[in-house]
# Entry
Amino acid sequence: MSWIAGGRNSLKRNSHKRFCHAIDNNQRQFRHVAYIVEKSYPEDCEFFWVRQPECVEGMQKVTGFSKWLFGLMAMCALLFSWQASGQTAAEPEKKAEQGSVGELMKHTRGKKCLACHKGMEGGSATAVAHAECESCHVDSGKDIQAILKAGAAIKMPKNSDCTTCHKNDRKLMNWAFSAHSKAGSSCSDCHQIHGSSVSKGVRLSADKSDRNSAMCVKCHQDTSAEFKMRSHHPVQEGGMSCTGCHDPHGDGHTALKSKTGQCLECHQAIGGPKVFEHAPVVEDCTNCHAPHGSANRGLLSTSQPSVCLQCHSIATGKHGFGSDPTPSPKANSRTVSGSVLRGCTNCHGAIHGSQQDPLLRY
Amino acid sequence: MKLFLLKRLSLMISLMFVANLGYAETENEVAAAAATSGTWQGYITPKLGYFNNSGNAAYLNRYNLLDSTFSHNTDNGFIADLDFSLLYSDDSGASLLLEKEGYGTNNQRLRLRGINDSGKLGAYYSTFKSATGTFNFQYNPDMVVGGTDPQYADPILNATGKTGFVASFNNDSPDVLDYEVRRSNYGFSSILKPPSFGDRASVEFNFDGYTRNGQKVSNYVLKDELLVSKKGSAEPYQWRGYANNIDEQNSKLTYHFNYTPQDWFINYEFSIDKFQNNVLPITLGTVQKWAAPSLKFAPGVDFLTPLGFVPDSTQYTNGLRVSRTFGDSAVISAGVSYALLQQDSYSEPQTTLGYTDGQTATSNAYLTGKFNVSPSVGLEAFARYNRRQNNSSYPVAGFFEPVSQFDDPRMVMPRINNYTNSALGFEAKLYPTVLKTTWSAGWTYEMKERGLTYGVVPALAPPIMLYGENYSSNEVFLKMVARPAKGWVVRVTPSYLWANETGLTTDPNQMLKLKSSVIYTKPAWNELAVTGYYNYNRKKNDSLSYSDYNVNPRGFADPQNQEATNTTQSAGLNISLVPVEELKLSLGYDWNQNDLSAYYFVTNRLRFDYPVVYPPVPNPQPNVPLDFYNLDQFNYKVNTHTLTAGLEKQWERYLFTANYSLMLANGYNANGLGGQSLPGVDDKIDYLLHTLALGTEYQFKKNVSVRGVYIYDRYEDNAYNSLNGSRNTLWLGISYRL
# Structure
């Protein structure tokens, strides 16, 4: 005798899920799928199959009807259920008819796996998009049931599995040449497929960095230390992200942008074009600046006047004590005051280039 | 009997009724399920913050400007805010994520991201207010206690009315200098996968924009005798500044077309990037109006001279990338782009004198390939090219020309006509199974070419400046990644560079680098994870030199080499473990050192004021030979230490966290003769920053938790005591889970 399968809390859940979709419309019979009876009924399991004998026993215990009334009731329920299923559950019925585990898995979106692997469902958009467990954990064409029966382990996906689906992602175009790829990083090192991206408010630390940056500094600890220096790009304050400057999937060799061009994406006021240019600015901002962090003001790699004196001499005739424009024969005849040395840019304010002044003062 | 039948009949009718209900419910729910079966999850957290500053909190506020929501007080007050992180998803795999995190009006970020089978879309908005130039403003002459060096006001020179250019700083604008700037970023992105293209093509549209609003100090130094006192005598104070507004807007529209037929990947990119400066131009005439009648300009001053002019501009970029994969054996990628940066607005002098086209064109290209010769041997090669061409108006008579202008030299530095940077390299990899070690060896050649036009007379040109036209270098490197034992990973990468010629002091002609790290993990022992690293970089340039110049006899004296050596080192050790269940500990130490030494050269006169041709053209300046002098070798050296400790303990419904970080730095900006003359606040670096954060979460109900954190920051500056300050911050919030 066949019975309707249903969930333990079936009265509380969607009715269409109460019923086994393995209905053969032609034969108008129910078809049961074996369920591993050793497993206890998980609370969240919305879909389980019951073996016939136990179902019968259970039903007999639960209802306590005499045989004849039980049969009459069953026939009535059968008539109404068949009518409902036949009119409203066409799509699931079709999928069930195909009979493959893969199709059922697709329909349930991995819920069978989640019955045991709690917490894997995640709470992120990524987890939702990757909800078909077998698409990453089962090789194409293989049967997960066969794998389970053989006692084999479900595979852990590799980078090549990710790029099979994400092959059209522009950001991964040059992944093979990226520093992360060469270092042997796997996609899962940074991307949490099963994790949750929804976060509670009120952080329990002083760090306000975004999720990406918090991930980066777990490996790049030397850079993390630089961000703690007193002059730094405001990553840990939440003002920007590591990915604002860096492409984690790319590499400098495949960048169609100069070093200065990268900085000018945000600092366009410095980009010009300028009439009077400052050579190190044209070529590479890191000639003078340490972009992650520095103990010096203005993200300078070394402070003024040191950063300037390595390239420039100082005219004592102009910057020296008691500047008489009449030059002295000897360069060291006048002392350059500390108030000059303390900040070259106090006077040469247009240090990144000027539209008007060849001496880069304004 | 009748009662028996009545009971049974009632039961049957009841069952039929129930079955009907089930049918109806099934029909409605399946219909609904057929449409959507979406769910919401996430958190909504209203929160309240309190902050209190003591001492000078300018340093602590430089990135964390807090304004009270209820009183606009920046010293202390309450802040109300709302955080949320909401995810909608349905059975089709579609999802929509909306999240916001904020800390008052000066720090907010909002993000939207949606995904379905047809594509993706995203949007973001953030606003962040900080001190202009971060804490640099604290060292502005009007901010430093004592102003400029009083020793500079020489009494003897005062008698002549000339105390030099840098005796005192003067704010000529009527505005109070307010050192704050707000940057707001916003954008929209979409990826569409038209069904007609199948899975092989997609189109992306991105819009990114930002605005910057605030104020900064701008300065201008006038030439001798441009300022006169009321009596008509030359005004000695030439160092002048004003409050300059910042009002900028940038908008960038980018279009991508991606096509992936079989093993190919083709990407085309086009973008328009528009920058707009909305601040009205400031000229000397503006300053005169501000400062009159106390400030008077001498006759002949050009009041149209713009100060700090920032023009509008537009950049157009085209790019094409192609990549092809050859199974598992090889992948080749190439790309080319062309960008044109066009100046859209011009100053009055530029327009008047004919400088009407400001433009730079940038070309980039790359070609790279990776080949797996065998399972244990890999090869990689690359070539990269970048060229920046200056297509701006040139020459422009009276404004920008290589013609001698003794009274007003207009081309002091050489004009950079173009700059080309190209590199090519090769790397071989070996993956032997012995010792589970990967070896790589490689070589890189880099070249830089600068197309320069020097001014005729007077102007800077070699060998009286440290700027050359060419640079070429070779670098060899070795990489090793070893797994000597279970749980261990060791990485070592030494490299050495040598240059044949250099054109900038910051171009190394010798460089030795070492990057190394060690990772040890033992999950079985309290989930122990230890990471350590050491990095070393020493670069040196001693190939550039100055020469004295004597008119009689003509020629240059022996060159004097500049020798700049810069060594940076960093090292760190970080440990994390879980000694008992529900208790996590972490401890870390990082050290960083930067050491720069170079020669401190002085000259007796401005180099561009000296004729470098013979016979010299008439020169009003006395014909005194140009003399270089190596005054001293200065040294900059600063050590930075960072100590961090963290704890996380779960106890029943409570979660406790504690984090402490200490950063201290000490060193000197310049020792020797240069450093001796520096004022105290600029002579050395010596500061401490403490940050302590104590956090708690109480799971009030299954879907409600109360979270709070107390943060104490303390900054102590032993070189500049007025910057000492501390801040207390407290955040409390109730987190509701959907």
